[in-house]
Design brief:
This protein is of the alpha+beta class and 144 residues long. It has a single domain, classed as Gcn5-related N-acetyltransferase (GNAT) (Aminopeptidase). The protein has 6 helices and 5 strands. A 5-stranded mixed β-sheet has the order 1-2-3-4-5. Strand 3 and strand 4 form a beta hairpin. Helix 2 packs across helix 4. The chain is globular.
């Protein structure tokens, strides 16, 4: 991937034609984020149930995607003031796509009358640099 492909991705609402690419994106981020910390049985259960497909199919009208010449590089979904999903493709990381998607969602959340935007991350994520760079701070850590 060349940097010019990801410098100015287009942000647009997801459409039905994006379902397969979005499911693939969620599977990709599952492999890099969750699979390494789960048992083989838990991974098999996840893959058999395919909650990624269920989530995408149910949420497609409320998803915003970042698209460049290589396809969908990221997606965000929120409800009220809570960001329920932020996924960035491996090929789109460290290119500002997550920050752009988050900024868009924050603007929509504020425009809807909320005072803050909330995002939950998991302790195995090593993305604190992204969160800090996006102007976010850790509010609290929940017990596991």
């Amino acid at each position: 991937m060349t940097p010019e492909n990801t410098e100015n991705p287009i942000l647009r609402p997801a459409v039905e034609a994006d379902v397969a690419a979005l499911v693939a994106l969620l599977h990709e981020t599952f492999r890099s984020t969750w699979q390494p910390v789960l048992t083989p049985a838990a991974v098999a259960s996840y893959l058999a149930r395919d909650p990624a497909r269920d989530f995408i199919e149910a949420s497609i009208p409320e998803i915003m995607v970042a698209v460049d010449t290589g396809g969908i590089r990221g997606m965000i979904h929120w409800e009220g003031d809570f960001v329920t999903a932020l996924h960035i493709a491996d090929a789109g990381r460290r290119c500002g796509i997550g920050r752009r998607l988050l900024g868009f969602a924050e603007g929509a959340i504020v425009a809807a009358g909320h005072r803050q935007a909330r995002l939950e991350t998991d302790t195995q994520h090593r993305r604190d640099r992204f969160l800090h760079g996006a102007g976010l701070s850790r509010d609290r850590t929940l017990p596991r």
